[in-house]
Amino acid sequence: MRPLHWINLVLLGALLIGSALLWPTLPERVPGHFGASGEVTRWEPVSLTSWFLPLAIACSIVAMNYGVARLIPR
């Protein structure tokens, strides 16, 4: 694996570990959506879904990118 791939995976792992460590310190509500002006337009209660779903999506995108890259002939 090339060095840039390792950096990508290390950063993704750091994101996951950091999010897991911050989970117990979250407030009762977290912003769920921001408007065009940067204001919070929707608040959501803290749940596993609201906190870890974006991380699951990020992991899925990285896995999909690596999978597509394997399919492309060199």
State the secondary-structure class.
alpha+beta
**Helical content (DSSP H or I, runs of 4+):** 55-70%
Count of alpha/pi helices: 2
What ranges have pLDDT less than 50 throughout 5 or more consecutive residues?
A: none
SSE order: HEEH
Shape: elongated
Quick one: how many beta strands? 2
Proportion of β residues? 15-25%
Overall mean pLDDT: 90
Radius of gyration: 16 Å
Biggest β-sheet strands, sense, barrel? 2 strands, antiparallel
Cα distance spanning the termini? 16 Å
Arrangement of strands in the largest sheet: 1-2
Q: How is this structure best described in words?
A:
With 74 residues, this protein is of the alpha+beta class. The chain is built from two helices and two strands. The chain has helices at residues 3-22, 48-71; strands at 29-34, 40-45. Strands 1-2 form a two-stranded antiparallel ribbon. A hairpin with a 5-residue loop joins strand 1 (29-34) and strand 2 (40-45). The chain is elongated, with a radius of gyration of 16 Å.
